[in-house]
């Protein structure tokens, strides 16, 4: 190296600093001959003395590297320094893309490079090989698109890199390129279908939509994707994008509610605030970003690099392009604004969380369409069910904030999923070809604080890195070793052990999931388990200082995660009350988003919460599915790299770039790509593709040798390729050369083929034109000759006609006169004889009817034999005549000289043969004409004669058998009709013979005419075959040459050629079949061909189906119109079994299904229907029986005709045709079940009937659509091809075992289909067709199996389970091997794959699976899951709970993945909704679809897709669907029922309401059934029956009664609600004065009053009676002092409204105390929640009283209940005014607590208070029996408990004042019986007699003392009472209250509790709840142990049915055991709410 080279200014050099990887690229900046200044590419400056410079210090850089290499795999100097230098050099030139083979490295420029992505740049990469153009993302997209065709497999692009590296932008560029290429694949843009353009545009516009919703500003990236997406573009065979699908992964939901410092929330929130117009901001309550808690936490609300206003415009445009409606877009704005308002909800502590500002709640509820009161309640309170009652407990502030955030996150995440689902629905397409997938997933993240989201994100990146390593390194090296390629292995970083740490068994995800399922699991316990399990793992990092961190050594570096929040985010729980609130939203968007979301309580089983899928588990599962999807495609990799972390342009930091390249494996990738051979092909495939490069190759040459020859042609040095054992390994540059040379060769060959084909086509067209010209001349000459001949012929015929007419009229007049005279005489002579003899002759003739029929048949057979003889004789004569004429013509040509114009006449004679079939009998000899006329006339008559004879035999037999069922008068009438029919038949036969003789005589007269002899001689000169060919060919030639007018003249000439030489009874001669035979028909007799004369009732009589092998197009108007799904069809001869005959059948293979039909299915609709035959046409006794009037016919609807046949054979005779143009109306309101009447313009009616209701509905809908559609709409209708309903046999592709060619005697080209049931044999017409069928059937079988392998056959889960079976009422468990597939659950006897399947259950969206129930496990020792299917139930068990949970969750996942089943009713409801106010369209929908209208037939299936939920019944398998059908039958039965009273009908209606009370979907089903039975539509009421039916719909009481009751009880779902309101309004508008309208109005009013809160009870009888009478329900409320008040309520009146009404009536509206309504039942009182429906309370007690009456063991038959209006929360009871209502209320409450023993007072005070109470109640002391009621004045139970005297069961029950009501019926004798029956046994077994006696004596002593104590109390109280004589009741109350106020807790509510921890010194305590707070007393003490104010109480609530928890600031958590937990919580909540409202109201 010359020294001047490395010192020259501007020279590029390497500064050597250690190893090659540490070299620095530099440029010589200065050189003065002594010192040299070098400036490195990274900004450093180094100075060196020239004397120190040598090769070991400075080295000259390669020129190519100085300029920058496009592909680093081609670099001469390969090291770390050269790679960085190359990237830096290109980055400085704005060349941000660089190759490593086919891998693209992309450096983020952090600036816009518009020229790099212009349209010109995009088109420059189209159809270019990789490497032809500079590196670009467009080049990768083009290569991906090209490889899809070249390799015939799907492709995918993996875009990876750190956050902020530019992955999203690369995705958008790839989508843009593929969209452009897709449009170019169809040619010009204007030729692209609009749907194709819209799909591509929608895919592109989905980018800004998902960016706004899923991207946010982070520390490292201003537009960071906070979710992962996999975009699949589905292509068709033409290369156009046919559809797409977007799959999202792990949206970061928590970013909605909190962000890290310096970060922002999702872009859409800021775009909403800045982009919405000012006029709309007021509606959305929008202000600035800084005003929202969810946006201002991080301190970053704006970013200069983002333009939110422009992005909002792009967002709105994307929504419009994709197809979001304006209403949906407005709902999206409301939801987003509502989320922001939720974040501003703040809480303060006051005995739990309380909302600070209710205005925020009002705004949020208004935006979200939610009740403000419920929204506030669900956030600050938590509801749980205890003892059958829902109890609400306040939450702490933290818990309330979590509830608020849960709502916000759920709303946003569901909105995001909904948007993606809408996009997928818009761009969906069939996956019938290949796809290109683009993976844009979140990059590796390492923040200061890393949480659960970063853990999942980095786990996904680990999986992608592992996929990259496996594809680039692992598989690469394995392939080289297997093929024996010399290879130097490259070391690379394997991250499989890190993945094992995360995802394997007992890995981090497993530990997180396991801990999440423990109710008491915490983040701390999880962290400890991680440390214990993985502390020794090399990839797990345990911090030295124990805290909240753990670390993982990822491929990109070490990351520490904060454990806080891991379990909460992994559980991803969403409370049911929150979900219910959102489902009840009035916003349609929110309803749609949460409609299919299931809550925890909606899943069956107690263990559901344990096995609920976790976020981590779901993410892991979806990630594995993604890896499988990627593995099925050929991958391309794009590595995005950040040049710096400051996000500034033109700043390349080598250290940052090097770190990314190192951990991404790019350095090793360069080495592998440089040394490796990434392209490899099997020798045969290589040769098949590249043989054109070396055409001289011999076919016998070995593939390997041929490949060597090809490769050596391009690379003789063997540098770019290697040969393995089975494959050729080629470098990418070599493949590019091969493809380029191949393209040139193929293009040259194509040009040569084109030149040859063009010459051939030109020559062929010239020959065709020449031949056509000659033929045209010939035909024109013939035309002129024929026109001259016809003029002369017509003149002669006109003369003959006139003369014959004159003679005939003369003869006719004479004959008529003679006949008239003769007839007059005969009639006069015979009229008397006929009068007496007619009856006798008719009966006599009827007796010989059968014999007459046999004679007629014999006559028919004889005439057929004569006909055949005459035909044979005529044929011989015709041949002889033709032969003689041919000989005579030849002799004449030889003898005579042909004149110049003779050839024209000859041609005319030849051509005239084409019209021979239309000519008169001149074309046949006269003798033959007569014979033909006679024979054909007989055949015509015999055709109808045969049908009449057959029908007569049946009718006669029927008449004979059933003759005794009619009276003699009716029999005589029928015999007369039968006799007249027989006589008419004989007359027809006689007339037939007479006509035959007349025709023969006319033909003989014609034979005498010389003119006819000449014409016959001229016409018979030309052969029939030659005539037919000439005509067809001539017409085609004329049409090609454009002689349309001449062709029309030919047609006219053919019509004029039809002339008549006979009498007026003789019809023209017509064409007979495909042969050139002729026949003459007489009168209206049908034409009978030889083919029709054969018995068409046999299977062997078919018309041949032409199999066009010449490729002719039959797609014209009369051609075949095939459904795209049907991909092959033809006629085959079929045989099944050994003795069966061959039968010709039409076979179709479609969608892996092979179907066999009797005839071709090419009609719009076809099927079997019953047709009513008029009795006049039957003509026999059969016409009088209605059930025999209906005949089964095969109907076929084609274009404008409806034809019917006797059977569905191909050549079946048409029995009639109905012209659709003549139809005026089609109705299904008929006398026949499933009937359809077709009314014609002639007032004629065709009565039809179907076998099933479904068939009738389909036919009705099709006919209505046909008569209302235009010609174009009918033409566009697709015919019903290959309908399996009409198939004779159906063979599923899965059931086919094998298809093979066979050899059967008698038939060539045979093959067989073997199934598991039988073997079918088929025969085709050609060998090619047979092989085609075999290929298709095998492909069908493989397709069915392959579809299973992709979904069905791929086991999702498999293992051993116990299957529960029941045999003879015994339960047994069978061990079976179960396999869960994509749509089925199968089980086998063993795990052997060859084992025969024992059974399976198909899984769809209606199936159900329960989770393991702990109760069943305790009984059986097995964890059981139940799978409910359509036909049966599978009960599966296992001993391991984890296995049961796994199976349950996997089965549920399969059920959830199935497409939703939608019924026709649901579709029609949507149509009615879209029809809106268009009355005609609505009527048309009702009219065309009988499923929506009233019927008297039972339903076969429900109207809605109900789930297969099991319903308790006597049947083994009785589902909710069966229950729906049963209920509909019950409704039909109610129509005919009558009730003696309204109460009886109410009980019947209550039964129906009870069936649907527990299921909301079932309620919707009942609603739709009732709407169906009362549906209305405008129609012409032409018959009395229709008018009665319409009146029945409007006035039927039971249906409308039930509708009104349903509307008062149950809230329907959103779609049903819209339909119901539409139906009710429609009823009122159409029939305003009917009873139905009155109930419709009542029901509509009830719906308007309904709230989202659901009814808890089935309506009571009293409520139903009130509804039937259209009035309010009346109930009684008891008040203070024994007063009562009757109040009027409806079904939705709450107790809070009743309290407000009573307060208003008592003038207590401004009272500061709180009142409540109490329910009283059997001495038990309980405060009712203000939101409780009063009607539910009434219904509940009615139900309990009914249970009491129905229980025979109950001593109490009915118990009184009532509602009491009382004081609830008392404020300042000490200062209550004397005599006020509050004063007296407190007095009553204090005394009630006193007699219960709760009031703490001395014995003396208690007795004094008792005496005062007596004075108040009874007045002055008097001699009354008050001692038996001592417990009403004194706490007797307190004394009883002191002496340990047990209370009886009844006393114990009556002693309760508050708490939950028990549904257990009273049994006062059960305890005593049990004790008496076991006391003697226990005495001698356990204890001695002496001890028992001591105990008995002790109990007797206690009872004696107790009675003595009572006597003392009674006497003392009586004494005190006497002292109070004269004291007024008001004074007694005053004295009572004055004494009671001596206790400081006066006015408090007291509850007995226990504290087991003895935190207050004793176990037995008393809680006093008042306005001051909660005070704890020792039981019976007056001094408080401790008092807690509501401000010091953080939260309180019930943790279980009898545990009350109190969380305070001083003592922490305190637990009390109490029976009245519900009442304690409700009372405290009422005090807290009242105090908080009073405080904020000031």
Which key features would you list for this structure?
2042 residues, alpha+beta, 7-stranded antiparallel sheet, 63 helices, 59 strands, flat
Short summary:
This protein is an alpha+beta fold and 2042 residues long. Helices cover 48% and strands 17% of the residues. The strands form 14 sheets. Strands 6-7-21-8-17-11-12 form a 7-stranded mixed beta sheet, sandwiched between helices. It has a 7-stranded antiparallel beta sheet with strand order 37-29-28-27-40-39-38, with helices on one face.
Mean pLDDT, rounded to whole units? 77
**Radius of gyration over all CA atoms, rounded:** 49 Å
How much of the sequence lies in strands comes to 15-25%
- Residue share in helices? 40-55%
Number of E-type strands:
59
Characterize the main sheet.
Answer: 7 strands, mixed
Stretches with pLDDT under 50, minimum 5 residues = 188-196, 603-610, 897-971, 1002-1126, 1176-1187, 1348-1352, 1849-1889
Number of helices: 63
Return the structural class.
Answer: alpha+beta
Q: Strands across the major sheet, in which order?
A: 6-7-21-8-17-11-12
The backbone outline, from C-alpha atoms, is: flat
Distance between the first and last residues' Cα: 94 Å
């Amino acid at each position: 190296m010359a020294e001047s080279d490395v010192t020259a200014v501007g020279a590029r050099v390497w500064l050597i600093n250690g190893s090659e990887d540490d070299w620095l690229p530099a440029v010589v900046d200065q050189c003065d001959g002594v010192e040299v200044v070098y400036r490195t590419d990274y900004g450093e400056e180094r100075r060196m003395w020239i004397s120190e410079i040598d090769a070991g210090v400075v080295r000259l850089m390669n020129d190519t590297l100085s300029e920058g290499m496009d592909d680093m795999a081609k670099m001469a100097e390969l090291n770390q320094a050269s790679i960085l230098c190359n990237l830096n050099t290109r980055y400085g030139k704005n060349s941000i893309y660089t190759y490593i083979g086919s891998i693209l490295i992309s450096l983020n420029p952090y600036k816009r490079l518009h020229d790099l992505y212009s349209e010109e740049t995009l088109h420059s990469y189209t159809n270019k090989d990789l490497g032809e153009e500079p590196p670009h993302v467009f080049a990768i997209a083009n290569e991906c698109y090209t490889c899809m065709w070249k390799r015939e497999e799907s492709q995918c692009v993996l875009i990876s890199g750190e956050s902020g590296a530019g992955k999203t932008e690369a995705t958008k560029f790839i989508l843009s390129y593929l969209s452009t290429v897709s449009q170019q694949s169809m040619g010009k843009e204007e030729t692209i279908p609009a749907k194709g353009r819209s799909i591509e545009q929608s895919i592109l516009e989905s980018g800004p939509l998902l960016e706004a919703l899923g991207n946010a500003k982070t520390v490292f990236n201003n537009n960071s994707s906070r979710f992962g997406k996999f975009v699949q573009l589905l292509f068709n065979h033409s290369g156009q994008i046919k559809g797409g699908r977007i799959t999202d992964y792990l949206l970061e939901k928590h970013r909605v509610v909190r962000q890290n410092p310096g970060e922002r929330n999702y872009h859409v929130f800021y775009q909403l605030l800045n982009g919405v117009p000012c006029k709309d901001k007021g509606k959305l309550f929008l202000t600035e970003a800084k005003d929202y808690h969810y946006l201002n936490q991080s301190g970053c609300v704006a970013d200069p690099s983002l333009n939110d206003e422009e992005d909002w415009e792009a967002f709105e445009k994307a929504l419009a392009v994709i197809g979001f409606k304006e209403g949906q877009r407005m709902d999206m704005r409301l939801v987003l604004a509502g989320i922001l308002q939720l974040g501003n909800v703040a809480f303060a502590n006051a005995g739990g969380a309380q909302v600070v500002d209710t205005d925020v709640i009002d705004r949020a509820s208004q935006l979200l369409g939610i009740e403000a009161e419920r929204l506030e309640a669900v956030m600050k309170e938590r509801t749980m069910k205890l003892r059958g009652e829902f109890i609400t407990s306040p939450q702490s502030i933290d818990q309330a904030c979590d509830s608020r955030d849960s709502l916000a996150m759920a709303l946003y995440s569901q909105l995001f999923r909904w948007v993606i689902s809408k996009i997928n629905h818009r761009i969906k397409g069939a996956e019938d070809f290949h796809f290109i997938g683009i993976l844009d997933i979140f990059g590796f993240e390492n923040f200061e604080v890393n949480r659960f989201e970063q853990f999942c994100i980095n786990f996904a990146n680990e999986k992608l890195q592992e996929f990259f390593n496996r594809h680039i390194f692992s598989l690469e090296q394995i392939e080289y070793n297997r093929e024996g390629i010399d290879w130097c292995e490259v070391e690379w970083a394997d991250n499989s052990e890190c993945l094992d740490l995360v995802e394997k068994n007992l890995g981090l995800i497993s530990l997180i999931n396991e801990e999440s399922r423990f109710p008491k699991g915490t983040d701390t316990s999880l962290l400890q388990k991680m440390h214990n399990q993985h502390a020794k793992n090399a990839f797990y990092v345990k911090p030295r200082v124990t805290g909240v961190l753990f670390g993982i050594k990822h491929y990109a570096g070490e990351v520490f995660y904060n454990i806080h929040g891991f379990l909460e985010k992994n559980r991803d729980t969403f409370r049911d009350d929150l979900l219910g609130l959102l489902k009840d939203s009035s916003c349609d968007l929110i309803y749609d988003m949460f409609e299919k979301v299931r809550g925890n309580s909606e899943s069956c089983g107690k263990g559901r919460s344990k096995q609920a899928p976790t976020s981590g588990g779901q993410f892991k599962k979806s990630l594995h599915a993604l890896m499988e999807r990627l593995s099925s495609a050929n991958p391309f990799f794009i590595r995005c790299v950040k040049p710096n972390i400051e996000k500034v342009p033109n700043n390349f930091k080598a250290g940052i770039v090097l770190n990314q390249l190192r951990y991404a494996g790019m350095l090793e990738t360069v080495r592998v790509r440089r040394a490796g051979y990434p392209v490899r092909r099997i020798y045969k495939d290589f040769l098949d593709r590249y043989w054109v490069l070396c055409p001289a190759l011999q076919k016998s040459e070995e593939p390997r040798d041929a490949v060597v020859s090809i490769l050596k042609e391009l690379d003789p040095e063997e540098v770019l390729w290697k040969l393995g054992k089975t494959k050729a390994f080629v470098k990418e540059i070599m493949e590019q050369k091969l493809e380029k040379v191949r393209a040139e060769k193929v293009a040259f060959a194509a040009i040569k083929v084109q030149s040859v084909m063009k010459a051939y086509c030109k020559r062929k067209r010239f020959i065709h034109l020449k031949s056509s010209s000659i033929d045209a001349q010939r035909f024109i000459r013939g035309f002129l000759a024929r026109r001259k001949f016809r003029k002369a012929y017509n003149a002669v015929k006109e003369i003959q006609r006139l003369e014959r007419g004159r003679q005939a009229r003369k003869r006719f007049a004479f004959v008529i006169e003679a006949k008239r005279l003769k007839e007059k005489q005969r009639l006069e002579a015979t009229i008397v004889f006929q009068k007496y003899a007619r009856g006798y002759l008719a009966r006599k003739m009827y007796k010989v009817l059968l014999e007459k029929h046999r004679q007629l048949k014999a006559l028919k057979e004889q005439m057929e034999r004569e006909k055949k003889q005459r035909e044979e004789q005529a044929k011989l004569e015709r041949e002889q005549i033709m032969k003689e004429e041919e000989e005579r013509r030849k002799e004449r040509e030889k003898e005579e000289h042909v004149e110049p114009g003779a050839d024209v006449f000859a041609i005319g004679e030849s051509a005239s043969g084409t019209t021979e079939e239309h000519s008169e009998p001149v074309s046949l000899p006269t003798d033959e004409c007569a014979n033909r006329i006679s024979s054909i006339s007989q055949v015509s008559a015999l055709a109808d004669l045969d049908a009449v004879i057959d029908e007569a035999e049946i009718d006669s037999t029927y008449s004979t058998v059933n003759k005794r069922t009619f009276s003699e008068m009716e029999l005589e009438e029928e015999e007369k009709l039968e006799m007249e029919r027989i006589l008419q038949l004989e007359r027809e036969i006689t007339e037939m013979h007479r006509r035959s003789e007349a025709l023969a005589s006319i033909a003989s007269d014609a034979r005498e005419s010389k003119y006819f002899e000449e014409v016959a001689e001229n016409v018979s000169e030309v052969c029939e075959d030659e005539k037919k060919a000439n005509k067809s060919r001539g017409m085609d030639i004329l049409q090609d040459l454009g002689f349309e007018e001449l062709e029309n003249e030919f047609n006219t000439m053919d019509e004029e050629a039809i002339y008549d030489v006979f009498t007026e009874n003789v019809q023209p001669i017509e064409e007979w079949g495909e042969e050139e035979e002729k026949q003459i028909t007489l009168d209206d007799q049908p034409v009978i061909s030889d083919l029709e004369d054969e018995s068409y009732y046999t299977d062997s009589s078919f018309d041949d189906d032409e199999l066009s092998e010449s490729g002719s197009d039959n797609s014209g108007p009369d051609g075949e119109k095939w459904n795209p799904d049907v991909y092959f069809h033809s006629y085959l001869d079929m045989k099944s079994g050994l003795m069966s005959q061959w039968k010709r059948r039409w076979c179709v293979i479609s969608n892996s299904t092979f179907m066999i039909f009797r005839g071709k299915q090419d009609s719009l609709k076809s099927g079997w229907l019953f047709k009513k035959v008029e009795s006049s046409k039957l003509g026999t006794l059969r016409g009088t029986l209605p059930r025999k009037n209906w005949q089964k016919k095969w109907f076929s609807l084609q274009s404008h005709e409806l034809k019917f046949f006797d059977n569905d054979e191909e050549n079946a005779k048409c029995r009639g045709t109905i012209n659709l143009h003549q139809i005026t109306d089609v109705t299904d309101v008929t006398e026949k079940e499933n009937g359809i009447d077709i009314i014609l313009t002639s007032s004629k009616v065709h009565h039809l009937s179907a076998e099933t209701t479904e068939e009738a509905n389909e036919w009705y809908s099709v006919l209505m659509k046909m008569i209302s559609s235009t010609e174009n709409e009918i033409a566009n209708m697709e015919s019903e091809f290959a309908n399996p309903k009409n198939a004779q046999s159906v063979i599923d592709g899965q059931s086919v075992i094998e298809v093979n060619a066979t050899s059967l005697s008698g038939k060539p080209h045979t093959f067989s289909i073997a199934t598991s049931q039988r073997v079918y044999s088929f025969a085709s017409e050609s060998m090619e067709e047979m092989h085609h069928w075999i290929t298709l059937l095998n492909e069908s079988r493989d397709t069915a199996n392959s579809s299973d392998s992709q979904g069905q056959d791929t086991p999702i889960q498999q293992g051993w389970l116990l299957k529960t079976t029941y045999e003879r009422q015994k339960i047994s468990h069978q061990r079976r091997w179960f396999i869960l597939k994509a749509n089925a659950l199968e089980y086998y006897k063993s795990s052997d794959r060859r084992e025969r399947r024992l059974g399976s259950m198909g899984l769809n969206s209606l199936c159900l699976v329960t989770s393991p129930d702990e109760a069943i496990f305790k009984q059986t020792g097995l964890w059981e899951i139940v799978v409910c299917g359509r036909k049966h139930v599978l009960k599966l068990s296992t001993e391991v709970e984890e296995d049961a949970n796994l199976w349950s969750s996997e089965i549920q996942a399969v059920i959830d993945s199935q497409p939703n089943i939608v019924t026709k009713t649901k579709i029609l409801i949507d149509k009615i909704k879209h029809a809106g106010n268009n009355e005609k369209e609505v009527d048309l929908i009702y009219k065309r679809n009988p499923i929506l209208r009233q019927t008297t037939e039972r339903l076969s299936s429900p109207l809605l897709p109900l789930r297969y939920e099991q319903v308790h019944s006597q049947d083994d398998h009785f589902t909710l669907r069966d229950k729906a059908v049963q209920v509909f039958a019950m409704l039909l039965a109610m129509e005919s029922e009558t009730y003696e009273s309204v109460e009886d009908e109410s009980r019947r209606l209550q039964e129906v309401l009870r069936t649907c009370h527990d299921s909301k979907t079932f309620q919707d089903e009942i609603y739709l059934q009732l709407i169906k039975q009362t549906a209305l539509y405008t129609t012409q009421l032409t018959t009395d029956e229709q008018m009665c039916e319409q009146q029945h719909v409007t006035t039927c009481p039971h249906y409308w009664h039930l509708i009104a009751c349903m509307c008062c009880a149950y809230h329907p779902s959103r779609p049903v609600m819209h339909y119901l309101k539409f139906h009710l309004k429609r009823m009122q508008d159409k029939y305003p004065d009917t009873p139905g309208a009155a109930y419709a109005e009542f029901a509509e009013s009830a719906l308007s009053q309904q709230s989202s809160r659901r009814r808890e009870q089935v309506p009571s009888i009293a409520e139903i009676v009130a509804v039937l009478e259209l009035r309010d329900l009346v109930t009684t409320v008891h008040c203070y002092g024994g007063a009562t008040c009757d109040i009027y309520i409806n079904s939705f009146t709450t107790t809070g409204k009743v309290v407000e009404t009573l307060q208003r009536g008592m003038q207590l509206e401004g009272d500061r105390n709180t009142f409540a309504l109490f329910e009283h039942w059997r001495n038990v009182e309980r405060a009712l929640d203000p939101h409780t429906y009063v009607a539910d309370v009434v219904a509940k007690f009615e139900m309990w009283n009914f249970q009491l009456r129905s229980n025979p063991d109950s001593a109490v038959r009915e118990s009184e209940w009532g509602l009491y209006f009382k004081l609830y929360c008392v404020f300042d009871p000490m200062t209550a005014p004397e005599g006020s209502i509050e004063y007296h209320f407190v007095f009553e409450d204090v005394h009630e607590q006193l007699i219960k023993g709760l009031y703490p007072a001395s014995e003396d005070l208690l007795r004094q208070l008792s005496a005062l109470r007596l004075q108040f109640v009874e007045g002055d002391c008097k001699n009354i029996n008050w001692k038996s009621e001592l417990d009403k004045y004194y706490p007797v139970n307190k004394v009883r408990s002191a002496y340990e005297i047990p209370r009886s069961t009844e006393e114990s029950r009556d002693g309760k004042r508050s708490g939950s009501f028990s549904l257990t019926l009273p049994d006062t004798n059960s305890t005593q019986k049990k004790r008496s029956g076991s006391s003697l046994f226990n005495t001698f077994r356990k204890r001695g007699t002496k001890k028992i006696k001591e105990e008995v004596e002790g109990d007797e002593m206690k009872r004696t003392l107790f009675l003595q104590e009572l006597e003392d109390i009674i006497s003392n109280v009586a004494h005190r009472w006497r002292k109070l004589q004269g004291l007024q009741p008001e004074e007694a109350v005053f004295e009572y209250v004055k004494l009671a106020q001596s206790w400081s807790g006066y006015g408090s509510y007291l509850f007995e509790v226990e504290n087991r921890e003895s935190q207050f010194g004793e176990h037995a305590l008393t809680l006093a709840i008042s306005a001051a707070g909660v005070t704890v007393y020792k039981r019976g003490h007056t001094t408080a142990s401790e008092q807690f104010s509501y401000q010091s109480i953080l939260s309180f609530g019930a943790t279980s049915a009898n545990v009350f928890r109190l969380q305070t600031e001083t003592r922490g958590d305190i637990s009390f055991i109490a029976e009245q937990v519900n009442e304690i919580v409700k009372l405290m909540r009422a005090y807290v709410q009242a105090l908080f409202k009073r405080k904020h109201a000031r």
